[in-house]
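User: Hey, quick favor. My workstation is busy. Could you predict this chain's structure for me?
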Amino acid sequence: MSNNEGQIVSGIRNSLDPTVRTQLDQLNYKVEPLLARTTNVLTNFTEHTLKHSLGVEKTYDILLDGNYELLTQKERYILIASTLLHDIGMMGRKEDLSKEDYENDRRKGHQTFSKEIIKEHAIQFGFSGNEASVISDVAEAHRKVPLEALEESIPFGLGESVRPRLLAALLRFGDELHITEDRTSQLVIDVLKPDEDSLKHHLRHLAVTGVDRKFNDRQKIQISARIENWDMERLLNDMVNEIRTKHDQVREILNAADILVSEIVTQYNDQYLLEKEIILLLSHQQLTLDDIWGNLSNRNQNAIRSKIISLTETKILFVDSKGCYSLGRDKTVFTAAFNALKGTERLYDFIKSEYVRNNIGVIFDDIAITNYSTRFFNGDRQDRLLLIGNSPTVLNNLLNQQEANPKFGNMNRSVVLDLLILNGYMQDVSLNPLLSQEEEVVFAMQNIQESLNKEMGSFLQLVQHLDPKSIEEGKREMEQDSKKKQH
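Assistant: No problem, here it is.
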């Protein structure tokens, strides 16, 4: 069932009497413009608007597993109202912007601010004084507040009681379980460019596929996600550990109310990561399927077998008569292997592997002659291979980026190639100075610099004497070539 805005209404809200649902729907409209301002100062943060509150509300469908009668009507109303307002204290206020470390204070203390706002504006939210008191206590206790500080049960009206401690435990746990991709988007990340600490929260939300009770073991909550690299696997594992910590805080309270959650388990789609791990293993040595299983004992054997079949069918891997797998040695496979590991922490491990060491020379020779009409021999060749073997940026430029335009006339293209190598290497050295500490590599860099100094003089003379009309004509032809490639 959906509301007027097309949002899916939670099962717990649908379980309430129509008049109570109407009250909560009206509360949605009241809090939405306030929650929309929860990131007006905390700009790096993931979604804390009404969408987040409704997402937390949906987690109660998981926790209660459809058995909504475990809570009374009044408890369900208080729980949902507390959920809608639990983050309202993150809303920024203009008069506080000049305060020192305002953003950090607002984030760390937002549960207290939420409580204050609920109590101060109770009538506008549609709460009685007693309702506001309980709702504000439950909302505040979604973090930091010891759950034992709340009453286990209090009489509320005639012949009815509510359990603030249980409701706060559900909110605390439900808040932690709202980890799906509706908390952010790739567009938000690209435009916002959040700092490193906030970025990890955005990225792991994008990776989560879903959260639900396990279909064949209803006491377990399962988190599914796709992992494409080792960084993401660590981020997700950290997140799951945080959820388990929250579960430990609420387990006994939930169990006492017959809301049984025995364990938080994961289900990772690691096909992309498996591909990287297999390529990395085989870049160092040939291995049988049993050897690969032994090296990847933390992965599912059937998933490994499936990925091995896929990589073999696409000619990335080859298997010999003894059942040993190895990486293909042509430029296409070399590029595919490099691109699979590009941007990961294990790229340097790949670059230093036997596979790269044995194949980079032939591939470099092919690129040099095909794209730059030049060849290097003996020490000159070795100098360039040393820099290439220490620079992911140079390898990326050679394999994926470089294109030599035939309109360069008589200019010595070896200069262009050397500039590409030296520039890429210096980019990596600026990020990782350790790359320049090997004496042999430093000598290689100096030799290439000397070669450039000799060649650049004639190049600059050529540029000075080029006919402006020829330059403009060449520029137009290059632009036309570029447009044709794009189409």
